[in-house]
Design a protein that fits this description.
Blueprint: H1 6-20, H2 25-32, H3 36-43, H4 51-61, H5 66-91, E1 96-101, H6 112-122, H7 128-138, H8 140-143, E2 150-156, H9 158-161, H10 167-180, E3 186-191, E4 205-210, E5 213-219, E6 224-227, H11 230-245, H12 250-263
Parallel strand pairs: 1-2, 2-3
Antiparallel strand pairs: 1-4, 4-5, 5-6
C-alpha cells in the first residue's frame, strides 16, 4: 500500500468528513464561503486550506482542532519538499521555461551560497540541507549536454537589489547570472523600477512547456502550487508576455546586472 503524503492525508480526511455529513462539494463550499472548485482542489490535494478555512471546517465537522493540528505538525514541515518534488517532475521534461521573479533570483540561477541564505531567511521547516541539495540538482538541467531547455528569466529590478546573504554573496550571485546569460539557451531580462507593470506584480511563477503541453508553478509565502489547468496557465503566459514587453533587452539587462554587482555589491 502506498504511503500518503501529509497533504493527501488531509485532503482525503476532508473528503471523508464531508461525505460522512452527507454533503456535496457545493453545499460545503457555501458553508465555508468559498468556491466549489476550491473545495475540489482541497480534496484532491492540489491546494492546502488556509487556517481560517480550516477553522470553519472544524466547526462544520466538529473535529475539535484535529484538522488544524494536521496542517501545523505534518504539512508545514513536509510541503517545501512536496512542492519541489512535484515541480521537478515537470521541470525535468521541459523544452522551455519562462520564469518570473519579483524579489529573489530564480532557483535555477542561484549560487549555492545565495540559495542557502534564501532558505535560512525564509525559516523553512523542511530540512535545509535536503532542500539545497535538491535545488542544486535541479540546476543541472541547464548545463546538461543533451538538449537543455530554453530558459527566459524575467526579473524585477528589486531582485538584484534585495540583500540576500550580504555584499559578497550578492556580488557573486549577480556575476553568476551574467555568466549564465552567455549561454545560447538562457535569456535574462530585467524589468526596471520605472515600468508601470510593476504594479501588477503579485507572485513569482514559472511556466514549463513540454511535448504534452504546459504546466506552471506559482509560489507564495506559505506554499506553492503546480498548475495544470489550461485556462490558468494561459493567464500566466499572458501576464509573462505583458511583463516581458516592459523589460530591458538581454544585453541591456546583463550590463545592468554587472554594473550593480560592482557599484552596489562590491565591498570597499
Amino acid at each position: 500500500m502506498a504511503t500518503l503524503s501529509p497533504r493527501m492525508f488531509l485532503a482525503q480526511e476532508i473528503m471523508r468528513l464531508r461525505q460522512a455529513k452527507g454533503m456535496n462539494r457545493e453545499q460545503l463550499a457555501k458553508m465555508v464561503f468559498v468556491s466549489e472548485s476550491l473545495v475540489r482542489s482541497w480534496e484532491r490535494g492540489r491546494r492546502i486550506p488556509q487556517p481560517d478555512h480550516l477553522e470553519a471546517l472544524e466547526k462544520i465537522f466538529d473535529t475539535k482542532g484535529v484538522l488544524l493540528q494536521i496542517r501545523k505538525e505534518l504539512i508545514n514541515a513536509a510541503t517545501p519538499m512536496e512542492w519541489m518534488a512535484a515541480w521537478r517532475a515537470v521541470e525535468s521534461r521541459a523544452t522551455s521555461l519562462l520564469s518570473f521573479e519579483t524579489t529573489v533570483i530564480p532557483g535555477l540561477l542561484q549560487t549555492k551560497e545565495y540559495a542557502t541564505s534564501v532558505f535560512q531567511a525564509a525559516r523553512h521547516l523542511g530540512e535545509i540541507d535536503e532542500m539545497l541539495k535538491a535545488r542544486l540538482e535541479r540546476q543541472k538541467i541547464l548545463t546538461r549536454e543533451d538538449d537543455p531547455p530554453t530558459l527566459v528569466a524575467l526579473l524585477a529590478e528589486a531582485a538584484l537589489l534585495n540583500n540576500v546573504g550580504g555584499p559578497k554573496i550578492m556580488h557573486d550571485q549577480l556575476m553568476h547570472i551574467a555568466k549564465m546569460a552567455e549561454r545560447d539557451h538562457i535569456v535574462v531580462q530585467v524589468i526596471p523600477f520605472s515600468s508601470s507593470v510593476c504594479a501588477g506584480f503579485l507572485a513569482p511563477f514559472v511556466i514549463a512547456s513540454f511535448d504534452a503541453g504546459e504546466a506552471a508553478y506559482v509560489d507564495n509565502q506559505l506554499n506553492g502550487d503546480v498548475i495544470t489547468e489550461t485556462e490558468n496557465v494561459a493567464i500566466l503566459r499572458r501576464m509573462f508576455e505583458q511583463f516581458r514587453a516592459e523589460a530591458l533587452s538581454g544585453s541591456e539587462s546583463v550590463k545592468l546586472i554587472q554594473r550593480l554587482a560592482e557599484e552596489r555589491w562590491t565591498e570597499n
